[in-house]
Amino acid sequence: MKKKAIVLLSGGLDSATTLALARDQGYEVYALSFDYGQRHRIELAKAGQVAKYFQVKEHLIVKVDLERFGASALTSDIPVPKDRPVKAIGNSIPVTYVPARNTVFLSMALAWAEALGAKDIFIGANAIDYSGYPDCRPEFFRAFESMANLATKAGVEGQARYRIHTPFIEMTKGEIIRQGITLKVDYSLTHSCYDPSPEGRPCGHCDSCILRRKGFKEIGAHDPLEYM
Q: Model-level pTM?
């Protein structure tokens, strides 16, 4: 039987490539997405398309109301920063940071993994071309993995040793895209923008759009998305 893996799937470039990699490594993939009150909810539709494209075993969309807590430009009326210089992105924690988001998401993924008997959780986090979020750093994922094996019945009883996989944590966006092309990721199915138009077109000016466009340019590849 194939090993089972939970893959956190936002519908973005990094998570789609992570899903493709897990599948390529022989895992039976269970994709997990979250409706957390984000302004860019179009990413959920894109996550569904990516999951269907790669024929995952199951794709769950779980509602977690992080919008109620606010404090982030992604879940409130705070303006999304635009046209920041690339060198400034990642130097500080921006207002698009959603409090404890990856901690919440990984905890849900861990619960599903334990229920399924899976030992592996994949997340497309990146600490090179990223927006400076504290929960995208390698030390965070090492700490969560340690916690996962202390906080679960399977971990305590020695039935499982949980692993948090962050295959792209130290890669540039261009390197991730290059690997995705090798893995036959259809990037036209993905969405990266924090502040899309009502029709879902990416703005081209938020941190996420800037980093995405930089990545495609870095390797001389065509970004299939149409920007505003």
A: 0.97
Tell me the fold of 4-218.
Rossmann fold (3.40.50)
DSSP per position, the chain:
-PPEEEEE--SSHHHHHHHHHHHHTT-EEEEEEEE-S-S-THHHHHHHHHHHHTT-SEEEEEE--GGGT--STTTSSSPPPBS--GGGTTSS--TTPPTTHHHHHHHHHHHHHHHHT--EEE----SSSS---GGGSHHHHHHHHHHHHHSSHHHHTTS---EEE-TTTTS-HHHHHHHHHHTT--GGG----SS--TT----S-BHHHHHHHHHHHHTT----PPP-
Q: Domain coordinates of the chain in residue numbers? A: 4-218
Which amino acid, one-letter code, is at 58? E
Tokens standing for residue 58: 């199951």
Cα separation of 186 and 16, whole Å?
9
Q: Are strands 28-35 and 163-165 parallel, antiparallel or unpaired?
A: unpaired
225: which strand partners? none
Per-residue pLDDT tens for 45-60?
Answer: 999 999 999 999 999 9
Q: Distance from first CA to last CA of the chain, Å, rounded? A: 46
Render pLDDT for 141-186 as a digit per residue (tens, 0 to 9). Answer: 999 999 999 999 999 999 999 999 999 999 999 999 999 999 999 9
